[in-house]
Amino acid sequence: MNHPNKFAAPPVIHLKAARGFRHPWIFSKMVTFPRKPLDAGTIVEIRSKTNEFIAWGTWHPGQMIALRVLSEDKEQPITEAFVRRRLERAKKLREDILDLPQQGDSYRLVHAEADGLSGIIIDKLGDVLVIEPFSAGVLSLGPMIVSALKILYPGCRIGFRPAPKVEARENVTFAPLLSTWPLPEKTFITENELRYEIDFCTGHKTGFFLDQHENRLFVSELAREATVLDLCCYTGGFALSALRGGATDVIAVDLDEKALVTAEVNAALNGFPRQGQACRFVHENAFDYLRKAHEERRTWNIVIVDPAKLAS
Question: In this structure, are residues 78 and 46 in contact, taking their beta carbons and an 8 Å threshold?
Fold first, then answer.
């Protein structure tokens, strides 16, 4: 294994024109393509038309975003040590500054460009770290990320969860990463004093929508003695939050039958429904359910519509 600070000079990609912005995406129209083709995801040095250093990044031929910048410091090339520093910074923000572990054992560790790791999402779900690639660059960075995460989170399980549509878009396969670092079938997490089963075989994205943490807590605060309709309920996050807050009647609707099975498991994990409560998980298209509810003039105190674009 290479020493984390060992560095072999990568291929060079030149820009056609001056880079007039600091966004980490550089589009193909700005790039002089190399005479010798490079594999998608290759780590490269980016230089100006006059051969001056600009940045280190990853190469994405055939994509509108041809280069994803990772470091603009000539003294900080893309090595395992560099990746570990980025992950340490992300961990410190979540744990030491935002104090997210107080809210539960799960949170988003890396949010792509916001954490200086373009095209990469990493979610901590209990004792499992899920890496979701959004660019071919993860093929090069993946092993370095795993190595760093093992140091930062000893004892945690680490795996990749690529989406087929990303592989098709990037024209690559993440199968080598997936086979070397597979995810377990399931794990359990705690959020806002509620327990959830995470099914990595059937779940969407990284397995759970951590970005709705605050909204689920807000629903708990609103739901006392309320009737609640949770549309597109997935594995029951909002429905269970409403029950935790004291809702008297909750109906949760989703078209994904497997997600509803997990939602029912999650309800049982938390002892719902409790005395004085009713809860029903309905396998149906949310739009069809709403049409019938409208015809029957049914109403609820709280209606949860997630994803948010359905509310417009």
Answer: no
d(CA 236, CA 196): 9
**DSSP annotation of 257:** H
DSSP label at residue 265: H
- pLDDT at position 311: 57
DSSP code of residue 177? H
pLDDT of residue 276: 95
The rounded distance, in Å, linking the Cα atoms of 127 and 222 is: 31
The total number of residues shown for the chain amounts to 312
> Exposed, middle or buried, 66 (CB in 10 Å: 0-12/13-18/19+)?
buried
Look at residues 215, 213, 208, 192 and name the one whose alpha carbon lies nearest to residue 102.
192
Q: In a 3-state reduction of DSSP, which class is residue 161?
A: coil
User: In terms of DSSP H, where are the helices of the chain?
Assistant: 80-92, 138-152, 164-170, 175-180, 213-222, 237-244, 257-269, 286-295
Ranges of the chain with pLDDT below 50: 1-4
Tell which residue, 71, 195, 60, 63, has the closest CA to residue 138: 60
312, 198, 159, 89 alpha-carbon torsion, rounded to 10°: 60
Nearest to 246 by CA among 276, 216, 224, 217: 224
Q: Output the pTM of the full model.
A: 0.88
Q: Is the Cβ–Cβ distance between 194 and 244 less than 8 Å?
A: yes
End-to-end CA distance of the chain: 53
The whole-number pLDDT of residue 205 equals: 80
What pLDDT is attached to residue 2?
45
